[in-house]
Amino acid sequence: LFFGLGVRAKLVELVELFLMPVVTLEFDPKERFTKLNGFKVQLFGMASAVFPKGVDPSLARLVIKLAAGAELQVTRNQKGELGMKHILVGGTLFDSQLRLVNDVVLDIKGGFAFIKQPDNFMLSIGGYGTLIKPKPGWPMLDPISLSFNPVDDVGLDLAFYFFVCDKCLGVGMEVDGHLDIDFKAVDATASLNFGLHALINYAPFYVEAEVHAGIHLSVHVDLWLCSKSADFDLDAHLKIQFGEGLDFSGDGEVRVHVLHTFKIPIKWGDMQEGPASLSWAAYVDKFGLEKDGKLDLAKVRISQGLVGRKDGIAIVSSDAVAL
After folding, report:
1. 296 exposed, middle or buried (CB, 10 Å; 0-12, 13-18, 19+)?
2. Segment 219-229 mean pLDDT
3. How would residue 321 be classed by pLDDT, with cut points 50, 70 and 90?
């Protein structure tokens, strides 16, 4: 059984909203539909804003368009008790832009998501990068991207992401730029790219990172009787890792192309597959997060002003204490 309702509203004459909540109820057919097995609450929405207000979007200083959704699912467990299965919140920016000086327009897009389940969580702004495979149920997200062309023949694209979950943390960015020159008989193109990605695993602790950079130049000269072309490429990539049970190691290559291709390998240490992450139960046991059968996640360390302890209670100086 489900029902929904659409709502359209305007906030402070600036933000226009469209919301559609949907509620789904799950009953047990064996109990003649009198027993609730669970329910799901979903909220779908779109929001748009133009600043300053009343200006045509094509001339506005800032345009924001956002599509978002949220879901809360509650099911009955093996003990017959109703409990949370997951909470999901996500959204994506589309057709959003910021107008800079001299009518230079910065296009903005990308997605975000938050998932909470009983034994894990995930928060992402812009996706997950290349160093981790998304788990089943994680939504596919576009990186947060900024693109602008200050003049017709020059362009710059910047993309970045950040995510954190119960087992690891990742961050990364990509930068791409290009320049085109067309002057009489000379046609030249230059492009560059740079990328950096890093992944930090909590337990066991290890760090994995990748970096790459490249430059490409192409020149074509068209003369009356003949034409000449020349290309130059420089590409480099490097992958490193270190942590518990791993040596500081690296593996990469530099490639140069001028009439002929030259490759220079880079390698030190012994690159290995990263150790498997601890399960939640093993993580709790390793860091002593359980006390009297319950999770004790809030731990405070007194770094200054501790006078003494009595019956397990810390006694501190009120004018010198620091946590």
Report:
1. exposed
2. 82
3. very low
